[in-house]
Amino acid sequence: MKKKVTILGATGSIGKSAADVILSALERFDVQVVTANTNAELLAEQAIKLKAKRAVIVDETKYDTLKSKLDGTGIEIAAGEQALEEAASEPADLILAGIVGIAGLKPIMKAIEQGSCVAIANKEPLVAAGPLVMAAAKKHGTTLLPVDSEHNAVFQVFDFERSDGIEKITLTASGGPFLNRSLEDMANVTPDQAVAHPNWSMGRKISVDSATMMNKALEIIEAHYLFNIEPDKIDVLIHPQSVIHSMVHYKDGSVLAQMGASDMRTPIANVLAWPERMETPGQKLDLTQMNKLTFEKPDFERFPALKTAYQCLESGLHSCVALNAANEVAVEAFLTNNIGFLDIMDCIDHILGKTKTTKLDTITDIIEFDETIRAKTKDFITNGVTKKAAQSS
Ligand SMILES: NC(=O)c1ccc[n+]([C@@H]2O[C@H](COP(=O)([O-])OP(=O)(O)OC[C@H]3O[C@@H](n4cnc5c(N)ncnc54)[C@H](OP(=O)(O)O)[C@@H]3O)[C@@H](O)[C@H]2O)c1
Question: What are phi and psi of 115, to 5 degrees?
């Protein structure tokens, strides 16, 4: 029996890697729906290559382009946010959540409700709505499979049956492109420098997150929810070679780690084939090519995002929502040259400092609160950060 798979975010870095893995084993998979936000040309290409049944584009102005590209192929097309949610609601054996940002929250919830397996790369919805996402998965009997290389690594070596034997987990971090830069240097880095990750080729938002180490901060929160593990049992270790993707420490002193090349096709193949294993077209690890594997403690002064993640978890869900929303807005402002690299953290600190405890019981509560925080962050960027920059120049 072929596995029915839907890819949300099929035109992104995760989506393209997933397509690569699926194309290498088309006899195993039956692609249901592929989705994108605006990139109709690539979506059409992906749909044709993957022999998808339907292609969904969120941006309705791109409907005609998608239609003309898929004319005569027999592939159904649809556009709009509603169509995206319908795509996520459609029964499939596995839905890969590869959208970037909080935009993936509603589709993830819909995917969970239809109750099979949801493979989550899209970490922001877990950060902002972790308790609700996990509760929905429990209620609907849905298996959540982590795609993030660190969480996929933990998943592979985590003894869920006997988790009381686990002392802590360590998430490894490459340290990003500015691992050895001073704060003075970092003040002047450009978006192109920030997205040039030394080990991984990824979308622009996550690449900037890796440079500020906000990516690892979001991953601490993601791990807390996915593995139901207390924040003080989640460590971060800088490992610039990205060979060990994370590890689980057991009470008896055993440490189980998962290793692999820096290639997202490995964790993606792991979730696509789960619980089986499959060949991947990705790179394989060759330890004879590694001169050394090094590890060091993270520098919380130059990379304050890490400290912020623990503080947000302690403070409550409202802080996690605010952290994620402020970060998404600030990263976009940095990528469009409206603020400097270090202003990203300034924006987040400012917003978190002003965020009050808020009751967030439903997804609607979270989305509304997220929107309020976005508006406040945009306002701060227009009236606060940029004013500061003008004064200092
Ligand atoms: N890239 C990696 O190696 C990696 C590793 C671990 C975890 N992740 C996580 O996986 C997620 C995706 O990352 P990525 O690097 O693949 O991002 P990306 O390359 O920017 O791709 C994002 C995908 O989401 C779609 N999208 C963007 N905004 C949307 C919206 N408002 N509504 C619906 N679809 C939307 C995009 O469509 P268009 O192409 O039409 O814009 C694209 O298909 C992120 O949460 C990231 O943190 C990524």
Answer: 70, 45
